[in-house]
Amino acid sequence: MRMNAANGKIYELLDKMHGGADCELDFRTPFELLVAVILSAQCTDKRVNMITEELFKTANTPEDFAAMPVEELEKRIFSCGFYHNKAKAIKEASESIIAMGGMPTTREELMKLRGVGRKTANVVYAVAYGGNAIAVDTHVFRVSNRLGIADAKTPEETERQLMAAFDEDKWSRLHHLLIFHGRYTCHSQKPDCAACLLKEVCKYYKKEQKV
User: Fold this and answer.
1) What is the value of pTM for the model shown?
2) CB-CB contact of 50 with 71 (8 Å)
């Protein structure tokens, strides 16, 4: 299925508003990105970067994290929230990578890692390896359903609908554009519709303004 003209226009306007959209997590290797993405759940990228700047000085390989006592890891990542679950996920992913003989390079292999969900796998596959994928976080879910390019109740359903609505070579870029739009314009509580170039094609805006 080819992207229709309406969705092409939305993509064009998003790109016009957020031309510099890209991953804002700091990393040097695919594994470092994996750790950073796990830490980023319900936490700002700015906070994650502050944590990993120190963390990666002493631990930045699967072997390092597998050997680190979970209590020590929890202390190091405490400020990002949900540190018990995140430490467990990082440890499990590290042990899985070692058992697999190295860092996976495909989305399917990444999803086989213990502690790694679909969203995390999609981000690593797209950002670290240049693959085509749409990772649906809270920003992507909110913005795509507000705009009307998805009409879904779950992240998985949203991902499927976005993949069907946009050309595959646009998926990874669209992911970043939607994140930036949600992060800097289409906020959860008070979306800045006045500054948004998409309001004329936005389902949410038309409903709220009764256009």
Assistant:
1) 0.93
2) no
